[in-house]
Write a structure and sequence with these properties.
By secondary structure, the chain is an alpha+beta fold. It folds into 3 domains: 7-179, Alpha-Beta Plaits; 260-330, no CATH class; 332-385, no CATH class. Helix content is 34%, strand content 24%. It has 10 helices and 15 strands. The chain has helices at residues 21-27, 29-50, 70-87, 118-129, 139-145, 175-179, 203-227, 234-241, 245-256, 316-331; strands at residues 7-18, 54-59, 62-67, 99-111, 114-116, 135-138, 154-159, 168-173, 284-287, 296-301, 310-315, 334-336, 357-360, 369-374, 380-385. The strands form 3 sheets. Strands 1, 2, 3, 4, 5, 6, 7 and 8 form an 8-stranded mixed sheet that branches. The protein has a 4-stranded antiparallel sheet with strand order 12-15-14-13, with no helix packed on it. The protein has a 3-stranded antiparallel sheet with strand order 9-10-11, with helices on one face. A hairpin with an 8-residue loop joins β9 (284-287) and β10. The radius of gyration is 33 Å and the shape is elongated. The protein starts with 6 loop residues before the first strand and ends with a strand.
Length: 387
């Protein structure tokens, strides 16, 4: 009778367990089990299904998962570890449930829904070497995702692991490096990174959509509303022309041809003006100066080596309005879209602690503002008032 041949196939194998599970169960058995099941139900199992994985079996705090694609396996692992970091933000350190994940690619034997083979054993050894909240993969996994995912594992060289005859090349990704990965680029190709939700419409696109809507809906109404308005008669024009010079200036010139104060010689220091090189480039200043008429102040926009200062005398009211506008611009946060490019003064990805808020000086922000960064995946970055 011929011997039945075992079914084999190439697969990506993911193994995971909970770091310090015995300690957690000893301290709070019921609470630990409830939190573990909640994480499985809300995050882990849905992510595995999303990336087309198959849970082969679970063993208490651990699980063995099979994927047809190594890219899907790594994507799933990163998503789970990022999600766990977010869920653990407000949990005390001694109660946090943190997974260790190992991933390998190899030939497996399938029997009765279970999987066996050297590839499974290697994945289990990689998991044991991973940090809590981190991922360890074999060298082959690292080679397979190059150019497909924007992830760079730390190469720890070849190591001998328990019950594996040959040395295994170990590549690791720590928890801080995972949550500080640069945000992905949407794409339908394998080179795309993780799709964590529907694409967001930025403020510029939203404004454009609102403008299109306003023109389409309100344009016809405006034309109908104003098409019947009568044009001014000659007598009405004559009456307007008969107004006093002051009234005429207020009623016509000031409305249609606003007065622009002349600019002063940029190369000559005026009374009360600070020396050249002492003001911050691009910043607006208002000063009292005898060069201006009563009720006016000297407005200076500081220049640079290539751009001279701009100076003019303006009324106190205009100066107050300009100051209020500047303060409003400084107070209004400027949000930067997540991408792979660092802003001036921004630390490299992977160097900041997840969930922590930082402020830095950056030329990407306006004078009076600082760059605020909340480390995460992806980072949140915006310019806010320094006050």
């Amino acid at each position: 009778m011929p011997t039945q041949r075992a079914e084999r196939r190439l697969a990506a194998i993911l193994t995971a367990d909970v770091a310090e599970y015995s300690r957690l169960m000893g301290a709070d058995e019921g609470g630990t089990l409830r939190r573990f099941k909640a994480h499985r139900r809300a995050l882990v199992d849905p992510k595995i299904a999303q990336y087309r994985g198959r849970i082969v079996k679970t063993t208490g705090d651990g699980m063995l998962v099979e994927f047809a694609s190594v890219v899907d396996a790594v994507r799933c692992a990163v998503e789970i570890q990022c999600g766990m970091a977010e869920r653990n933000l407000n949990v005390p350190d001694d109660k946090r449930i943190e997974f260790r994940v190992g991933i390998n690619v190899g030939d497996i034997i399938i029997e009765g829904g279970d999987i066996f083979g050297d590839g499974v054993n290697v994945a289990a050894r990689l998991e044991a070497l991973a940090e809590a909240g981190g991922i360890c993969v074999s060298g082959r996994v690292q080679e397979d995702i190059v150019g497909r995912l924007p992830i760079s594992f730390e190469d720890r060289g070849e190591q001998h692991v328990k019950n594996i005859a040959r040395p295994i090349r170990i590549c690791a990704l720590g928890p801080n490096a995972i949550v500080e990965l640069p945000p992905p680029l949407d794409s339908e190709e394998d080179g795309a990174a993780y799709v964590r939700g529907p694409p967001r419409i930025g403020p510029t696109a939203t404004t454009a959509m609102l403008l299109v809507f306003a023109v389409a809906v309100l344009g016809p109404w405006w034309l109908i509303r104003h098409s019947g308005e009568a044009t001014p008669s000659h007598s009405e024009n004559g009456a307007a022309a008969a107004k006093s010079g002051k009234e005429a200036r207020i009623g016509t010139q000031a409305e249609f041809s606003p007065y622009e104060p002349p600019e002063l010689n940029p190369s000559v220091l005026l009374p009360g003006e600070p020396p050249f090189g002492t003001l911050r480039s691009g910043t607006r200043y208002t000063l009292q100066s005898s060069a201006c008429r009563p009720g006016e102040v000297l407005e200076i926009v500081a220049g640079s080596d290539k751009i001279p200062r701009r100076k003019r005398c303006i009324s106190d009211n205009i100066a107050a309005g300009a100051k209020a506008a500047d303060e409003a611009r400084i107070a209004a946060p400027t949000e930067f879209a997540p991408n792979n490019e660092l802003l001036p003064g921004e630390p490299p990805f992977g160097t900041l602690r997840y969930g922590t808020r930082y402020t830095f000086q950056s030329s990407a922000c306006r004078p009076g503002q600082v760059l605020e960064i909340i480390a995460g995946w992806p980072r949140r970055r915006r310019c806010i008032s320094a006050n």
